[in-house]
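Before a colleague's protein record goes any further, I have to sign it off. What it holds is a sequence and that sequence's fold in C-alpha cell form. My question to you is simply how this chain folds and whether the C-alpha cells agree. Thanks in advance; the entry in question is below:
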Amino acid sequence: MISVAEIAKAIEGDIVGNKLFSIEDICCIEKGKNNCITYLGNNKYKKYLKTCAASVIVVDNTFEIEDNDKIYIKVLNPSVSFVEIMNLFYPKIIKKSKIYNSANIHSSSKIGKNAFIGPNVTIEKNVKIGDNVVINAGSFIGCDSYIGSNTEIYSNVSIYHECKIGRNCKINSGTVIGTDGFGLTKDKKTNISIPQVGSVIIKDDVCIGGNCCIDRGTISDTIISENCRLDNLVQIAHNVKIGKGCIIAGQVGIAGSTILHDYVTVAGQVGVVDHVSVGENSVITAKSLVCKSTKKNSFLSGSPAQPHRNFLKQRLILKNLVADKI
C-alpha cells in the first residue's frame, strides 16, 4: 500500500482529493479497479473516465476535473509519471553479484564489480565487462568485445567478436549482434562472400527486443546511437547507421549502408532499401517500402513510400476506379 501523498511527492504532482488515501496497485484505464491508480495519457481514452473504477487518476496540469468522486494527481506528463509509479509498485529485480561455476570465462577477460554471470555463459578472451552488468544463462560474448556498466543481457543472446555495447542497455533473448553482413560478389555464376571485418557499436541506453539480428560492417562499423528502441524481430544490415532516439517496430528490415538520422520512427513490417538516407524526425507507416532518400520531417506511407497525403489520395482514386467498374 502506498499513499497518494507518497506518490504525488515521487512524481512531483499536485493532489486534488484525499492525499491520505492508500493505493493497492496500478491498473489500466479501460478496466480500472477500486483502490488502484491509473492515468490519462491520451485524450482518446477520456471516454473511459465515467466507467473507470480506479480510485486515483493521474492527469496533466490542464485537465478540467468534473468528477469529484475520484482523486486526481496533476502532473506535466502523465505517461512519464506513470512509469515512475509503476516502478514504485514493481521495482526492478536487482540480481545479486554472482558468477556461476558453469560459466566459461577466459582468463584474459576482465569482469567489473557486482556483475552477474549466469549458468553456461561463455565469455571469450580479452572481453571487458563493466560494473553491475547482468549476463543471463546461455549467452555468448565473443573475443575483444566490450559491455558497458549497468547493461543487462538476457538468456541466449549471442554477441560476436569485437562488438561494443554501451551503458544502461538491454538486449533481449535470442538476439544476435555482429553476424556477417549479407555482402557478396560473383565470379561468373559462383557466389563469393565478402569478408565482413567491421564491427557493431551500440551506444548508451539502447533497448533491443528478442530475436533481432544486427550485422557487423563490411569495413566500417554498424552503429546504433543513444536512446534507440528496437522491437522484436528487427533486421539491421551491415554498415547501417541509426541516429539518436530512433524507434523501430517489429519485423522491420533495414538494408545495408542505410542511414536513419536522429528521432526517426519506423512502424511494423517496413522495408528500407540499401544506401538511402532517412531524414531526422521522419515517420514511416506500417508495411511501407522506402526506396529513395527522404528529407527531414517526412511522413511516408505505401510501397514505394511517398508522402502520406499523396498515398491517401492515390488510395482514394483507386477506390473510386474500382467502384466505377462494379
Q: What stands out?
A: The radius of gyration is 24 Å. Residues 153 and 230 are 15 Å apart (CA to CA).
